[in-house]
Specification:
Chains A, B: Keywords: DNA-binding, Repressor, Transcription, Transcription regulation. 2 copies of one chain form a homodimer. In chain A, about 75% of the residues lie in helices and about 0% in strands. Chain A is mainly alpha-helical and about 200 residues long. Chain A has a domain of about 140 residues: Tetracycline Repressor, domain 2, CATH 1.10.357.10. Chains A and B meet through α1, α6, α7, α8 and α9 of A and α1, α6, α7, α8 and α9 of B.
């Protein structure tokens, strides 16, 4: 590696670390106050940067929140992929995802708030969430079709309908859990929903 | 009726009508912008009142939003009660409620947004929503126990668990429906969820 390549690799790592610090700070700020009320000044302060320093990495508030939701979705995808790599079937991996979420209430709160705010058609994340839900339901449907193909899904269960309901159930459970963490066991509720849909030993 | 009683009844009706006009205006304002961003000035303007006139009926923004959510919950309870009075069982009445909601997207949007915002412990509606969810799940559980008692619920179905899941499912479906009204049929999804839990002809 040449000296200049090493320098630029170092600069790249530094930039990536700083962007991640901003995303982490933004999660905290927007989780507490939502997109509209959260301010870039607060994000910059929490990240230990000037506002100009922040704007160097993300030219606007929309860019910051976009990075936050993309990071959140990547995290969720990684949790599922790790669970599947560890031997779980893709539906069991959803239970692991909810268990992961139970350890990250701030992220759950942020997601619940943003997905509600962004139902307004003029919200900067509206189109992102439209695509996000369509993608989430389609991926879940594909997983259910896979489960049907391997005999894991009980015959007669409709993958498309269950994909939509399962997505709704997980969203709704997160809201209730935020209100009453002591009484709501998201993973247990999801297991209870899935059990009658699955064949125990295909 | 004495003249003064008639006068005071007229005044009461006028006050009630004006309060309702404020609640209706508040639904529109807060549905568009949420509790934090919505302003009393906009509510007053839409209701055709001065801000002082509005404050005569509701001394603060919290009082307005409280009236809005109570009105919304009363509406929902009435839709369910009417459906039951019309001969539906209490679970079928939930399908009617979602059909009612499909005709009132603004209200659905308001409810989704407020229930998300109010997960923050310092939100003025937080305690209201904590009680609201506990009450909604308990009422649904009682209805399911009633259905079990009359043989309508399939044996082995747990009323407490289904009450929580059903509440979550309805909440989550409303979010997805707001993003894609063309593809999401809330009532059909609810029917699909309920069907395997019920005995067709008890």
């Amino acid at each position: 590696m040449t000296e200049s390549a090493a320098r630029s690799r170092g600069a790249y790592a530094k930039t990536a670390a700083r962007r991640q610090r901003i995303v982490t700070a933004a999660v905290e700020v927007f989780a507490a106050s939502g997109y509209h009320k959260g301010s870039l000044r607060d994000v910059a302060e929490r990240a230990g940067l000037s506002q100009a320093g922040l704007l160097h990495h993300f030219p606007s508030k929309v860019h910051v929140i976009q990075a936050v939701v993309e990071w959140h979705d990547e995290q969720s995808a990684r949790v599922i992929a790790d669970a599947v790599a560890g031997g779980l079937d893709p539906l069991g991996a959803l239970v692991v995802l909810l268990e992961h979420n139970e350890r990250n209430p701030e992220l759950v709160g942020l997601y619940v708030l943003l997905s509600a705010e962004a139902t307004a058609p003029d919200h900067p994340l509206h189109d992102y969430f439209v695509r996000r839900y369509a993608g989430a339901v389609a991926r879940l449907q594909a997983r259910l079709e896979g489960a049907a193909g391997s005999g894991r899904l009980r015959p007669g269960v409709d993958p498309a309908g269950v994909a939509r309901a399962l997505t709704a159930l997980m969203d709704g459970l997160q809201v209730q859990w935020l209100y009453d963490r002591g009484s709501v066991d998201m993973a247990a509720e999801l297991r209870r929903y899935l059990a009658p849909l699955l064949v125990a030993d295909p």
